[in-house]
Amino acid sequence: MSDSPEDSPTLEAEFDCMLSRAGITIPPERRGPALAAFVELRQQTALLRQPRSAAAEPSNIFRLPHPGAL
After folding, report:
1. Mapping DSSP to helix (H, G, I), strand (E, B) and coil, where does residue 25 land?
2. Which of 32, 33, 38, 49 sits at 20 to 30 Å (Cα–Cα) from 6?
3. 10 Å Cβ neighbour count for 15?
């Protein structure tokens, strides 16, 4: 067994659970690419869930005029 996250039995069990909960059936020939996409999605989600400081906020804001002011 390699150290690749795609080979983790726990990860495959989580993948199967997610598919089952969503009612999705993946054909066997597409399981490998779908599992790889699942791994990448988890990695991207982890990046989004990190705490951010005020420096990560946008420097500009957009405001629409109040309808009564037109």
Report:
1. coil
2. 49
3. 20
Question: pLDDT tens digits, residue range 17-59?
Answer: 999 999 999 999 999 999 999 999 999 988 887 887 877 777 7
Residue carrying structure tokens 């399981």: 31
- Lookup: tokens for 63: 């405001």
Element (H, E) at 36: helix 28-48
CA dist 21 → 24, 25, 40, 46, 54 (Å): 8, 11, 20, 21, 37
Length of the chain in terms of residues written: 70
Would you list the domain boundaries of the chain? 1-47
Query: What pTM was computed for the model?
Result: 0.59
